[in-house]
Amino acid sequence: MLIRSNKTSDLTENDVTDEKVYRDRRNILKGLGFIGAGSLLTQPAHAFNWFGSDDEDLFQTNELTFSQPRAFQSDEALTPEDKVTQYNNFYEFGTGKDDPYANAQDFKVDPWTLTVDGLVENPITLSFDDLFKRYGLEERIYRLRCVEAWSMVIPWIGFELGKLLKDAKPLSGARFVAFETLFDPEQMPGQRSRFVGGGIDYPYVEGLRLDEAMHPLTLMSVGLYGKTLPPQNGAPIRLVVPWKYGFKSIKSVVRIKLTNLMPPTTWNILAPHEYGFYANVNPTVDHPRWSQARERRITTGGLLARNRIETQMFNGYEEVAPLYKDLDLRKFY
Ligand SMILES: Nc1nc2c(c(=O)[nH]1)N[C@H]1C(S)=C(S)[C@@H](COP(=O)(O)O)O[C@H]1N2
Ligand SMILES: [Mo]
């Protein structure tokens, strides 16, 4: 009998099972012809939602069609779907981790308008349908590292922001990209009340340098786990910048504006000594109130399970290092 030691790996059997269930489900859907048909499928997700609840009151997500480039698949254990969609930061719906799931289910995402303007030759307006049809969608499994020292591994679906920006044709003076979340206090209780919304001046705003925005890892996400985004994760479209702390990955984006000056960003306005513009994941630069050397990876087990791993420079995406070769990352945190 072969006796295997667990010591060489911190993968548990449960970690592997989550991913396997997801793969099997995808393969079955493929076999049934539901995936890969070439167009956005509009079947309500609950018809296929084999391990979620069928709760009628939940926001309806839809199956997406997308490719799965090998370079963005991963052997890492995925964070289970129910944790990705029920443990969130989205202060527009409340500051508690379970507030977005509890408060965002009636959020209206269609119609939606995303505009790209500012220092561009060719301003662009995308409708709700355009978000899913204008660019081919890809699945990308990325690590998400929150500045609060927890992390997830999430199978996003989306397209490179760089493709959209290229179509808009940035003018030579454009050096930064500013992003803005929908402002709609009627729908977002955190925008109605400073108490619910954590004292933020809404709309939530974020920004990147133009070269960061053009980097092939920078994603506009319209889905996760094979389906359109639920509102708590930033439906219908949100940014994902995997080498930066999660707060850079702004949700429910309505405007992308190219500028010549570094744009203001929500957490930097709120606490500039704690949150910088760059916010690159960096285990050697601690938050003033806690260490960033390690993180709690959310996989299976309870939400507070002790599953500590070492944080990696740039969250493990070292290919972005050349973007910062001339920058003191201690100063520009
Ligand atoms: N508009 C907006 N975007 C936001 C936030 C927010 O409060 N409002 N929270 C950020 C933070 S702190 C994190 S960690 C990620 C969380 O994304 P997720 O809930 O999809 O995992 O969203 C980011 N984007
Ligand atoms: Mo975060």
Structure description:
This protein is of the alpha+beta class and 333 residues long. The protein has one domain (19-324): Sulfite Oxidase, Chain A, domain 2 (Alpha-Beta Complex). It is 17% helix and 20% strand. The protein contains eight helices and twelve strands. The protein has helices at 13-31, 81-84, 99-103, 128-133, 161-168, 189-192, 210-214, 266-270, and strands spanning 113-118, 124-127, 138-145, 150-160, 176-181, 205-209, 219-224, 227-228, 238-240, 253-259, 294-297, 308-310. The strands form two sheets. Strands 3, 4, 7, 8, 9, 11 and 12 form a seven-stranded mixed beta sheet that branches. A five-stranded mixed beta sheet has the order 2-1-10-5-6. Strand 7 (219-224) and strand 8 (227-228) form a beta hairpin. It is globular and about 50 Å long. The protein starts with 12 loop residues before the first helix and ends in a 23-residue tail after the last strand. The model is unreliable at 1-20 and 22-52 (pLDDT under 50). It binds the ligand Nc1nc2c(c(=O)[nH]1)N[C@H]1C(S)=C(S)[C@@H](COP(=O)(O)O)O[C@H]1N2 and molybdenum atom. InterPro entries: MsrP (IPR022867), OxRdtase_Mopterin-bd_dom (IPR000572), OxRdtase_Mopterin-bd_sf (IPR036374). Keywords: Metal-binding, Molybdenum, Oxidoreductase, Signal. It is an enzyme of class 1 (oxidoreductase).
